[in-house]
Structures are given as C-alpha cells and as structure tokens.
Amino acid sequence: MLHRKNPSSALRAPSPLSRGEKGLRCGSSENILDITGRCTSDGDRCSCIKYALMIRRLAIACLMLTGCTTAPQLWLPGLVSTANSEVRIAFSPDGTRMLWGCIGCPDGAGGWDILESVREKNGSWGKPHHPSFDSAANDFDPFFAPDGSGVYFFSNRDGGLGKDDIYFAPFERERREYAPPINLGPNINSAGDEWAPSLSADGQTLLFATDGRGGAGKHDLFLAHREGNGWSIASNATELNTAAEAFDATFLSDGSIVLSSGDFEGRVALYLVPWRDHRYGSRVELGDAVNAKGKDAWTFGPAVNPREPGVLYFTSHREPGAGRVDIYRIRLRVGQAPAPVPSKR
Predict the structure, then answer these.
(1) Cys-Cys crosslink for 215: which of 8, 206, 220, 277, Cβ 3.0 to 4.6 Å?
(2) pTM of this prediction?
(3) How far apart are CA 342 and CA 276, in angstroms?
(4) Residue 230 in 3-state DSSP?
(5) For position 341, what pLDDT does the model report?
(6) CA-to-CA distance for 263 and 270, rounded, in angstroms?
C-alpha cells in the first residue's frame, strides 16, 4: 500500500500540475516530469524536482500502469489455466515454446510439475505435455534462457545440495530436445530452498529467491553474475528485500524488477522496483488492476515474454478464474526510454 505524507509548505509546488504531452507539466514552467521523477529541460528545475520528491512513488506507480487493459485477461483457459493450479509461465525467445508450473496435475509425476506447450505450424499452441526434465520429484518455476540455450528451474530431486535447488536443462536446438539437467552448484544453491530463477535480458545476471543464505526476511532475493560458464557467488540484493517474504521476481525490459512480497499466511502482492541511474529505487505496489484484493489474497509469479514488450504475466486467484490459482496477462507501459540492465559493480 502506498503511504502518503502531507508535504511541508517548503516542498509544495508553486503552481498546479497539468498533464503535458510528454509527462507532468509544472504549471507555466516548461519543465517536464518524466517517469523517473526528473525534469527533462534545463529551465527553472527547482520546483519540479522538489515536487517530484513528494510524488515520486505515486507517479511511478501511476505511469507504470498507464495503458493497462481494463482487467487482466485469463491466459488460455482450458489449455494453460485449468481447474488445477498454474504458476509462473515462461516463454522461449523464439516464441515457439511456453512452460509453466502445475500443482496437482492429474498426470504429473510429482506433486509440483512443469508443463510445456509447443506452437504448431498453424500458430496455435499444442497440447500440454511434461518436458523430459520433469521428474517424480518437485520441479517448478521454469525460466527460458534469453539466448534459447535451455531452461532454468528448481527441483528437490535426489543429488542436490539442499531442499529445492536450481538446475539448468540445456536445449538442443537441432534435435529440439532437452539434455539432462545440471545443478548450478554451491555458488547458487544452499542447504535451504532456491526458487524462481530469472535472468536479465543479456543473460549476464541471475536473480532468484532463497532462505538458505540469511538476509532481511525468511526468503530474500539474491543476484549472481556470469563468470565464464558458471556464476559468481550469489550476493544479497539488499535494495530489493525487506523483513517480508520475497520469493519470486522477474526483470523487465528496462532493467526494473517486478517482485512478489508479503506474508505466506496473509497477503502477497506484486511490487515494482525501478532501475534508474544505475541503481534500484523504492518499491511501489502495483495497483488493483494487477493485485488481487483482500487481506489473504495472493498475486505472485511475475513473468514476461521477450516477444511481447509491455505485457506482464502473473499468477493470482480472482474472477473470472478456472482453478485455485491461474495465470493472467495484462498490458502495461514500462518507462519511456530504455535503461541499462544491472550488471556487476
């Protein structure tokens, strides 16, 4: 929830705001307030910047959702969203495959399974099946590598380092088959749980949740960076975490992050953490168009399709729905100019 404080007279804008063609116009000034809360011209910037300090979080929340559909769309009911529980969808970069987690699938080998659908020649999605790396253990949270080289996911199969570990199943393009999955090793996996792997658009940064490395909450978000064929030792993404649970997240096209956070026994919601000027800003809860209402409502599993810029997929229980939790799709606007993807500093 957004908390607003009454501004002191010293911080009040001297004139009312009106919407300009490029952003929020500060009265008669020619300064334009863009989505980052910065004025875009070199005139009298003082009042615009001061006002931006007060409304920064609110402005980002509003502008990030400019262009939303009036309501989230249930994603492919009967194919993806069914009477079972579907969580966190993933898409291959060439748009030919999608994968998602399913709890309680009648034909599943484990209690938590991964399903895959392959696009057919006529453009429709084929009947869901279990990919070869789905096992009798719990397998979940698939994420297709941005270069199409394979799928990241977590599993509690035998031979891991802890409870749920992150694995990578290479995809052999010529044969259109997955090779046996590989454990990402101790730089990523711990004696606890690792969940929800997600890569930056350039494939150089791995974001995931864990409860096995300490932090501000029970599960915190961690980052690791590509080092040769492996990954650096994961470090706590302190700018993203609070005392609440933070258990899955995804990068947006401009380097910002959408994450789910809350209380497993209560409400879980999606938040935006903007990436601006080579750092993360304050988290802002996405509005009712995305987050389900109610003190015990859950909205989580954020995901994006690289071939659909400006679209967010997520998991929630709401009406209309097909099962306990389903996958939904909504269009939103992510900034007005590209920003660099976070990299190792």
Answers:
(1) 220
(2) 0.79
(3) 10
(4) strand
(5) 40
(6) 12
HEC string for 72-136 = CEECCECCCECCCEEEEEEECCCCCEEEEEEECCCCCCCCEEEEEEEECCCCCECCCECCCCCCC
What is the pLDDT, as a whole number, of residue 334? 52
- Give CA separation, 302 vs 6, 49, 179, 269, 312, in Å: 33, 32, 27, 10, 7
89 in Cβ contact with 248 (< 8 Å): no
Omega before 320 within 30 of 0, i.e. cis: yes
Which residues, 6 or more positions from 238, have their beta carbon under 8 angstroms from its beta carbon?
216
Distance CA 5, CA 292 (A): 25
Task: Determine whether domain 73-331 maps to CATH 3.20.20.70.
Answer: no
Give 147-199 pLDDT, tens digit per residue: 999 999 999 999 999 999 999 999 999 999 999 999 999 999 999 999 999 99
pLDDT of residue 70: 58
* Separation of alpha carbons 96 and 119, rounded Å: 5
Structure confidence by residue, pLDDT tens digits, 293-336: 998 999 999 999 999 999 999 999 998 899 999 999 999 765 43
Asked if residue 246 has pLDDT above 50, the reply is yes
How remote is the C-alpha of 113 from its chain's centroid? 20
As a whole number of angstroms, the distance between CA 47 and CA 29 comes to 9
Q: Is the CB of residue 188 less than 8 Å from the CB of residue 199?
A: no
Parts of the chain belonging to CATH 2.120.10.30: 73-331
